[in-house]
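Attaching the record inline, Q. Sequence:
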Amino acid sequence: MMRRFWLSMLVAVAPWASATDWQLSEHCPAGFQLDEGRCYFASLYSDYRSLQDSGVGGLKTGLPEIRDGFSPQQIDLGRLLFFDPLLSGDQSIACSSCHQPDKAFTDGLPLSRGIHNRLAARSAPSLWNVGFLKTLFWDARATTLEQQAEGPLYAEHEMGNTPEQLLSSLSQNAIYHELFAQAFPGMGLSLEAVYSALAAFEASLISLNSRYDLYAHGFHNALNAQEIAGMNIFRSFVARCAECHTPPLFTNQQLAVLGTPEPEGRALDIGAEGPTGDRSLRGGFKVPSLRNIELTAPYMHSGRFKSLRETVEFYTKGRGHAVPEGEHLSIHWHIWEPKLTDAELDRLVDFLRTLTDQSFMPIIPERVPSGLPVGGQTQHPSSLAMGDKP
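Structure, as predicted:
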């Protein structure tokens, strides 16, 4: 209790630095170009045709529209908020606690843990490339990054805050008053600005420079023979991986009922049936992107599988083989019985590892405006952020 009192006092009087010591970045993150004060996405993929024109699994396939057009200051403010435990109800965890950069913005747990070590219902999905996604959460219940931000902030088993407390905590901090004025001139500090800043930062997380991408852009020596063999299996009409995990995002952004087994002792997670009320989506979840999949174990919505090899093997064991007795699920028609060999499964894993890329990792702040410890306890080997003066 005494420790929490002193933490609250530190936040209330503002930390040892004054507001004038903080200046938000005027530069766009990697992958974006500055145009009239706004950051816009730029990529070789922008020159390629859409999926409809290039076919499923095509290497030179265009990306869906990204959420961009935020200012550098808004993105940088969102970065500081993302790593600041001030946003949680007891000031113990930040967004980055469950979305840790070195784990591809996941947390390495089967089910995430929130304040007071409370167990979340599902695993933490990666945030790489979320600016391209049309729906968020495993059950696709949010349609904007702002809606997604509100979920963990106010969920009792996650960050456990309330809108009133969040606004009060930020309002008592002189540094945040100044930074919100920089990022949102004329609007200042408000809950809407908080959600917008978090959305701006998350939309800036781009991962499109893997060895697979080099191969797709024409540098064919980027992959070895085993990895190319795995890619061909991935794209084949036998395995059919690419029909749901469609390049270049490696997701078709649809919901799919797979019949994935739950961890021992846990009841069936009804998934998208919950927010939609659609019985055919019982046990259905969003098809996740496979970008940086090597770094995001354990796998599936409940972290059921510990390794990539175990995960790909699930798909070749037969349609609906893991559905609990008494459940009648509408298994996605792509999930059938490809009967892949052990060698083919190994080659699939080889290929999936070529999708690893964190070259555009944002700079992790060494301090945050609240003066609290930087959330997630994760440090990336880099210099101080442009917005942080030593």
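The beta strands are 32-35, 38-41, 255-257, 284-286. The domain at 211-355 is CATH 1.10.760.10 (Cytochrome Bc1 Complex; Chain D, domain 2).

More tomorrow.
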